[in-house]
Amino acid sequence: MNGKKMNTISSPKDELGVDPKNHYRYCPRCATKGNFDSNSFAFKCHSCGFHFFLNSSAAVTALIYNQKGELLFTHRGVEPSIGKLDLPGGFIDPGENAETAMMREIKEELDLTPDKIEYFASFPNEYHFSGTVVFTIDMVYKCSVSDFSTLTYRDDIIGLEFIKPEKVDFNEIPFKSVRNIIKAIRNE
Length: 188
Ligand SMILES: [Zn+2]
Fold this sequence. Notes:
- 15% of the residues lie in helices and 32% in strands.
- The protein is an alpha+beta fold.
- The longest helix has 13 residues, at 98-110.
- Residues 27, 29-30, 32, 45, 47-48, 50 line the site of zinc ion.
């Protein structure tokens, strides 16, 4: 993953900061003090009228199987949860479509080029980054790869592992969305 990949920060000093209502206390446009409404996930400025909604950030996640039916996991190379299991993927850039983002992330992280990608389902996630909660919606694609000869790893990955979905240890998966993805695969 590149720098935009999901990180979790759970140390006690960050706990006060993670709730979004602790942030966004000033209008992003005119800097008037105001209040973030955590029920509507919105900040409305009483001075200039600017209305800001906190939405989920769109992300893509890849399911890549080898010929033995094992799923490709990455080992996280950044704290926290360094060494723990994750799936390949990352954020969709503004203006980019999800399919292009999926192909780009697989190329950037793993140097693989899928023959075909097929949308599977989406899974919400929350991760703690930079002292706040970032809400994401992880769009999952089944990615058919026939040529693994170029397989490598870059960015914030320190290793790769193929594991049968039914054998993966959930204690090794720090992200809720990834655990739910594996559950969904097992129930297919
Ligand atoms: Zn304002």
